[in-house]
Amino acid sequence: MANFFDQLGDILFLDIETASLTENFEDLDPRLRDEWIKKEKLIQTDHGKIEPGSLYFDKAGIHAEFGQVICVGVGYFQRKKKDKKLIFRSKVFADPDERELLLSLNSLLGKKKWILCAHNGKEFDFPYLCRRMLVQGVPLPEPLQIAGKKPWEVRHLDTLELWKFGDYKHYTRLELLAAVFGIPTSKEDLDGSQVNTTFHLEKDINRIKVYCRKDVEVTARVYLAMHPQLDEMELEMVHLEDSPKDHKD
């Protein structure tokens, strides 16, 4: 088990929250508006005629070309051998300037050879961060540089992929895994479908930050639950001070 604990301290658990670039479709750059209308035709589920831009507010945030990162939650484990205790230290980066937020994250990711772990991270969080960093002129930190690397050289873990065990048929929500393992939910006050409204209309970034932090904690707990051979250890959650450049109402 020594190897497991040695690696555990190198894993940075991560979750991002995203929103549409603008509150209103009409405020989007004209070239991006034209491209969104093309994208909209591909993603609409109702094959009837829809008003151009009508899906923008609800759907744009999940597409990096039309969305933005509004906060990033991170966390890592520290082990206290004598006390048989694991301490999970978490923090949320938030900034009204997306570039500044991504620069802060870039600095953290460059501090050590992290192994990144997120739920559905390989399909969403990691590529989204890469795309938004490039759009904002932020160099990709080493853990996100995967071009030219062999699969086993990429230090990315994904709890969704781990749960599949080679099964490609199904997507399993983080909330379902939390329920299966008896882990407290992160959806008590908010869920992903409400983030854009909470950010743009309610202007309540603090509520989103709490939700983001809880998602990171749930992901970390799910990862531990996937290693049931561990001896019983006390788990303590410690929230580090948030980034000082938080969004102000």
From TrEMBL:
SUPFAM superfamilies referenced in this protein's UniProt entry, alphabetically: Ribonuclease H-like
GO molecular function, one term: nucleic acid binding
Coiled-coil residues: none
Residue ranges constituting the Predicted 3'-5' exonuclease PolB-like domain according to the UniProt record: 94-234
Pfam families: DNA_pol_B_exo2 (PF10108)
Annotated protein name in UniProt: Predicted 3'-5' exonuclease PolB-like domain-containing protein
